[in-house]
C-alpha cells in the first residue's frame, strides 16, 4: 500500500468515525477535527481549526485545559475522563462526555500535540440520574407510607420493613422488627401463615387477605395483606413482598355502625309508636274525664263502663312508658295453619273494607300445604297489604290474592340472597295500582318511610310485615313498576313431616331444562343476567336483549332457530305485549312467555285464545320460571294461530 493510499484511508476513517476525534497542537489549537466532535461541541469544523480550546469551548476550558497541559509536560495519556458542561449550541443544557487524551510524537522526545477521542455519554448519565431519583423517590414513598410494607423469606424472616410497619407492630426500632419471625412472633396462629403460603404459592398476586396479627404488647390486630410472591430464575418461591393495612378499627367501626343503625331504627320505631299511642291515649283520657262530668248520677252502669275505659287508657299509658325503656318482639303463637282456607276467610273481612270499585280475586292452588304460623300476625300482614293496595288504586282496580306451594333453591340466591332453600307456601298479593319507582322500592321496608300524605299513613305497615315474616322464618319479596302495580310475595316455610318430605320433588327434577333456543327480553339488567345464566345452566341456548326493539331485530335474524320468546311486559322502546302483537300480525306462531308484575289471571284474560302464550308473575322463582318454560315448550300448539288475539294492558308500554 502506498503512502498516499494509506493517508486517504486514514483521513476517511477520521472523518466518518462515530466517535469524536481531534488533533491539538502544542499550544492546544485545533489542527484537525472530525464532524462528529464538531457537532458535539455545537460549532462547524471550520470554526475549530486554528483556534485554541478556550476560544471554542470557553465553558469547558477550565476543566479540560489543565488535563491537556499535564499531558504535554508528562507525556502520559489521560483515559476515560468524565467531562461535563455546556456547549455554545445549548448554553443552558448540561451534557456529558467520556474523553481519552494521549500525546502525539514531537521533537526531542517531547509531545508535539495531543490526540483526543470523545464519546457522548449524556443519555447514559441522564438515565442513571433518573434511576437514582426514581429509587430515592420510591424509597421516600416506602419510608413515608401510612401502610406497612415488608419483604420476607419463605421461612418467615423479615428482610426489609418500613417505619409504618414498625409502628403498626408497636416496636421501637426497625432492628427489633427485623429480628422477628413472622409465624412465631407476628401471626396470632402460626399455622395460619403456613396455610396462606400453600394457598398462594402458585399465584401471581395476593389481594385483600385478612388475618390476625399480634403487636409487641400482645394486643391482637386484624390486618389486610396484599402483594406478590417472589421467585428465583427457576421459578422457586423465595419470599413475599407485601403491603399491610391495619383494618382493626375499620371493622370495629363497621360493627359499631351496624349496631348504631339497628338501635337507631329500634329507637325510631319505639319512639314513633309511643308518640302515636300517647296522642291517642291523651284523647281517650281527656274525653273520658269530660264524659264523666256530664253523666247523670242515676246511671251507675255508664259510670262503670267509663271507668273501664279510663282504666284501660291508664294501663296503656303505662305500657307506653315501658316501651320507651326497652324493645322486644312479642312472642308469636305458631300453630298448624292451612293458608288457603285462612286467606279465604280473611278476605271476607277485607271485602267489607275495600271500596266497591276494587275487585278482589282469590286463587288457591290445590293442596298448597300447612304452615306453622300465628293466624293473628298473618291477618295483620294481609290487612296491611290490602290497605296499601287500596291506597295505590284510588280510581279502582283489581286486588289479586293467591296461595300456592313454592320451592326455593340455591339458584334463587341471586334474587333472594337471604333465603334458606326448601319448600314454602307463598301468599301473593298483587294490585293494578300506581306502582313504585326504584328509589321508593329501595326504602319500602324502612320504619316510618311513606309516600302517603301526612295523616294518611304511619310508614310502619311494611316494616311490621317484614318483622312478622322474619319471625315466621320466612321472607318477603316486593316487586313493582310505575304504572304496572305492585306484587308482594310472603314466603312461609312449609310444615312437613317425614312422609311429606319424601314426596317433595328433588332439585334435579325441579330444574329440568332442555336444548331449545330461547329469546330472552328483560330491561332490568340483574333479572336478565340471572335468567340468562339459569337458562344456559339447564341446557337452553339463549339470545338476550334489554328491550323489545332490540329483541325484534334479534328475532327476525334468528327466527328459524328460535323455539320460544320469554319477554317482560313493560320495556323501553317496545313493550312485550306490543312485540307479541307484531309477531302475531306477521303470522308468526312462536311461543311467548310473559314475565310481569301483573297477576297471571289478569294477563291470561288478555290472550286467552292463544295456546302458545303463558305467563309467570314477578317476582318469579327459579322453579316457577323453568316450570312455565318447560310446560309451554312441551304443549302441543295447533296450526292456524289467530293473527291477533291480544290487546295491550291499559298501562302497557
Concise structural overview:
The chain has 653 residues and is α+β, with helices and mostly antiparallel strands.
Number of domains: 5
Terminal-residue CA separation: 99 Å
- What percentage of amino acids are in beta strands? 15-25%
Provide the helix percentage: 40-55%
CATH architectural label of the largest domain: 2-Layer Sandwich
For the record, what is the CATH homologous superfamily label of the largest domain?
Histidine kinase-like ATPase, C-terminal domain
Strand-pairing-aware structural class: alpha+beta
- CATH topology (fold) name of the largest domain: Heat Shock Protein 90
Radius of gyration: 44 Å
Mean pLDDT: 80
Put simply, the count of helices is 22
CATH class division of the largest domain: Alpha Beta
User: Unreliable segments (pLDDT under 50, ≥5 consecutive)?
Assistant: 322-329, 505-509, 642-653
Largest sheet composition: 5 strands, antiparallel
What is the β-strand count?
A: 22
User: What is the strand arrangement across the widest sheet?
Assistant: 2-1-5-4-3
Instruction: Specify the overall morphology.
Output: elongated
Task: Describe the protein.
- With 653 residues, this protein is of the alpha+beta class.
- The chain folds into five domains: 3-127, 2-Layer Sandwich (Beta-Lactamase); 145-246, 2-Layer Sandwich (Beta-Lactamase); 251-325, Helix Hairpins (Orthogonal Bundle), CATH 1.10.287; 335-503, Heat Shock Protein 90 (2-Layer Sandwich); 507-634, 3-Layer(aba) Sandwich (Rossmann fold).
- It contains 22 helices and 22 strands.
- Strands 2-1-5-4-3 form a five-stranded antiparallel sheet, sandwiched between helices.
- A hairpin with a 2-residue loop joins strand 3 and strand 4 (90-104).
- The longest helix is centred in the middle third of the chain and has 47 residues, at 248-294.
Amino acid at each position: 500500500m502506498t503512502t498516499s493510499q494509506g493517508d486517504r484511508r486514514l483521513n476517511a476513517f477520521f472523518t466518518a468515525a462515530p466517535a469524536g476525534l481531534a488533533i491539538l497542537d502544542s499550544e492546544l489549537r485545533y489542527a484537525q477535527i472530525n464532524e462528529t466532535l464538531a457537532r458535539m461541541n455545537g460549532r462547524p469544523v471550520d470554526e475549530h481549526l486554528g483556534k485554541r480550546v478556550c476560544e471554542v469551548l470557553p465553558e469547558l476550558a477550565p476543566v479540560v485545559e489543565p488535563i491537556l497541559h499535564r499531558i504535554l509536560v508528562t507525556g502520559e495519556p489521560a483515559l476515560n475522563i468524565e467531562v461535563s458542561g455546556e456547549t455554545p449550541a445549548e448554553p443552558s443544557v448540561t451534557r456529558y462526555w467520556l474523553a481519552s487524551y494521549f500525546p502525539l510524537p514531537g521533537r526531542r522526545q517531547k509531545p508535539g500535540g495531543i490526540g483526543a477521542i470523545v464519546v457522548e455519554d449524556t443519555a447514559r448519565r441522564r438515565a442513571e440520574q433518573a434511576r437514582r431519583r426514581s429509587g430515592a423517590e420510591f424509597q421516600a414513598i416506602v419510608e413515608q407510607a401510612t401502610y406497612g410494607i415488608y419483604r420476607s423469606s419463605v421461612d418467615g424472616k423479615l428482610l426489609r420493613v418500613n417505619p409504618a410497619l414498625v409502628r403498626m407492630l408497636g416496636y421501637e426500632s426497625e432492628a427489633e422488627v427485623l429480628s422477628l419471625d413472622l409465624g412465631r412472633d407476628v401471626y396470632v396462629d402460626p399455622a395460619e401463615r403456613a396455610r396462606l403460603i400453600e394457598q398462594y404459592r402458585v399465584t401471581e398476586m395476593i389481594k385483600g387477605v385478612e388475618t390476625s396479627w399480634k403487636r409487641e404488647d400482645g394486643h391482637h390486630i386484624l390486618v389486610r395483606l396484599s402483594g406478590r410472591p417472589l421467585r428465583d430464575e427457576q421459578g422457586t418461591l423465595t419470599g413475599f413482598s407485601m403491603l399491610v393495612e391495619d383494618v382493626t378499627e375499620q371493622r370495629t367501626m363497621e360493627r359499631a355502625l351496624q349496631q348504631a343503625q339497628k338501635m337507631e331504627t329500634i329507637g325510631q320505631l319505639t319512639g314513633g309508636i309511643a308518640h302515636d299511642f300517647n296522642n291517642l291515649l291523651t284523647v281517650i283520657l281527656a274525653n273520658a274525664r269530660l264524659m264523666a262530668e256530664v253523666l247523670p248520677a242515676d246511671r251507675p252502669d255508664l259510670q262503670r263502663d267509663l271507668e273501664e275505659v279510663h282504666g284501660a287508657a291508664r294501663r296503656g299509658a303505662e305500657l307506653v312508658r315501658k316501651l320507651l325503656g326497652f324493645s322486644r318482639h312479642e312472642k308469636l303463637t305458631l300453630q298448624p295453619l292451612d293458608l288457603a282456607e285462612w286467606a279465604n276467610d280473611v278476605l271476607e273481612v277485607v271485602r267489607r273494607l275495600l271500596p266497591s270499585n276494587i275487585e278482589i280475586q282469590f286463587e288457591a292452588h290445590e293442596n298448597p300445604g300447612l304452615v306453622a304460623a300465628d293466624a293473628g300476625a298473618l291477618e295483620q300482614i294481609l290487612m296491611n297489604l290490602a290497605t296499601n293496595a287500596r291506597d295505590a288504586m284510588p280510581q279502582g282496580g283489581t286486588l289479586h290474592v293467591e296461595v300456592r306451594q313454592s320451592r326455593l333453591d340455591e339458584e334463587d340466591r341471586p334474587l333472594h340472597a337471604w333465603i334458606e332453600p326448601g319448600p314454602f307456601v307463598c301468599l301473593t298479593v298483587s294490585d293494578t295500582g300506581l306502582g313504585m319507582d326504584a328509589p321508593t322500592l329501595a326504602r319500602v321496608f324502612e320504619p316510618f318511610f311513606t309516600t302517603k300524605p301526612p295523616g294518611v299513613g304511619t310508614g310502619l305497615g311494611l316494616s311490621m310485615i317484614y318483622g312478622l315474616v322474619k319471625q315466621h322464618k320466612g321472607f318477603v319479596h316486593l316487586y313493582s313498576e310505575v304504572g304496572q302495580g305492585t306484587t308482594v310475595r310472603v314466603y312461609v316455610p312449609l310444615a312437613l313431616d317425614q312422609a311429606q318430605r319424601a314426596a317433595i320433588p328433588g332439585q334435579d327434577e325441579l330444574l329440568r331444562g332442555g336444548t331449545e333456543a330461547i329469546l330472552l327480553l328483560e330491561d332490568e339488567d340483574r333479572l336478565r343476567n340471572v335468567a340468562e345464566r339459569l337458562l344456559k345452566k339447564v341446557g337452553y341456548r339463549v339470545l338476550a336483549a334489554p328491550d323489545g326493539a332490540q329483541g325484534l331485530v334479534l328475532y327476525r335474524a334468528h327466527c328459524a332457530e328460535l323455539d320460544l320468546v320469554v319477554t317482560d311486559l313493560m320495556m323501553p322502546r317496545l313493550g312485550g305485549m306490543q312485540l307479541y302483537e307484531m309477531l302475531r300480525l306477521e303470522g308468526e306462531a312462536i311461543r311467548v312467555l310473559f314475565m310481569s308484575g301483573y297477576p297471571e289471571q289478569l294477563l291470561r284474560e288478555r290472550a286467552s285464545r292463544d295456546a302458545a302464550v303463558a305467563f309467570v308473575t314477578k317476582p318469579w322463582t327459579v322453579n316457577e320460571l323453568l316450570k312455565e318454560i318447560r310446560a309451554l315448550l312441551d304443549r302441543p300448539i295447533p296450526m292456524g294461530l289467530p293473527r291477533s288475539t291480544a290487546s295491550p294492558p291499559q298501562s302497557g308500554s
